Amino acid sequence: MQEQHIVSSFDRDLESIQALIMKMGGLVEVAISDATRALEDRDEELAQQVRHRDKAIDALEDQVNSEAARVIALRSPTATDLRTVLTVMKLAGNLERVGDYAKNLGKRTSSLVQMPDIDGASGAIRRMGREVEHMLRDALDAFVQRDVAMAEDVRRRDQEVDQMYNALFREFLTFMMEDPRNITACMHLHFIAKNIERMGDHTTSIAEQVIYLVTGELPAEERTKGLMPSYSVDL
User: Fold this and answer.
1) I want to staple 139 with a disulfide (CB 3.0 to 4.6 A). Which of 44, 115, 206, 232 is the partner?
2) Where would I find the beta strands (DSSP E) of the chain?
3) What contacts 218, CB < 8 A, 6 or more positions away?
4) What would the 3-class secondary structure string for 218-233 be?
């Protein structure tokens, strides 16, 4: 009876932490969607809301880490159970970083609304953000369902995000060469596109952690990255 009591207490602890992860993931998905919509609609108020709401994401990461540390201290989990606790801590870290990138989008959007629009750029960035948002949703679903195939699919789709970034990078260079007055706006847009590409990397890391959680091993093959321009920047 005592062992059953301990096991069910541990399960309840894990369910509570995983619920926090899903809540955090939901906030991050909304942040990506709102940040890219604010850019497309040139909505400075919405961009500011994204920036302010990042505090809630940060607070959830702290709560996940605190709860996970408490579980380790009280329950001394081993094997699969320990792997689960460590995985949720890494997932929280990745989600927090994606939230930070969404906040950065909000900051740059507040600057961009004062500048002339670059034809088609905001819509293309929104499509890129929507793809990352879908990847994140699938990665979290893969976590809940312990679905390796779904996690592998998320991992594969990161290459498509890289290719979208590369295409945007070339477009921004063209705009800047055609008219130097576009340089400042295109530099902001380039950093926004790079932030979204990095969101894709962190989402892929979540998918890889799901694979590790289920199989006990990280993917053996290094994932294929879309070819990055040699003169691109790393953030």
Assistant:
1) 206
2) none
3) 208, 211, 212
4) CCCCCCCCCCCCCCCC
Q: Structural domains in the chain?
A: 1-215 (1.20.58.220)
**In angstroms, rounded to a whole number, what is the distance separating the alpha carbons of residues 99 and 95?**
6
Kindly give the parts of the chain with pLDDT less than 50: 1
Contacts of 213 (CB under 8 A, 6+ apart): 83, 84, 87, 143, 146
**pTM, two decimal places:** 0.90
d(CA 88, CA 113): 38
Phi, psi for residue 175 in degrees, rounded to 5: -60, -40
- Do 64 and 88 touch, CB atoms closer than 8 A? yes
Question: What amino acid occupies position 51?
Answer: R
Structure tokens at 30: 């909304």
| Residue 134 pLDDT | 98
User: CA 199, CA 147: separation in Å to the nearest integer?
Assistant: 21
Residue 42's nearest CA partner among 114, 143, 135, 150 is 114
Residue 207 to residue 172: CA distance in whole angstroms:
31
d(CA 88, CA 151): 15
Both tokens of residue 55?
């505090």
At 120, which amino acid appears?
A: G
How far does CA 70 lie from the centroid of its chain? 26
Name the nearest CA neighbour of 224 among 129, 176, 157.
Answer: 157
Helix pair 148-178, 121-145: axis angle to 10 deg: 170
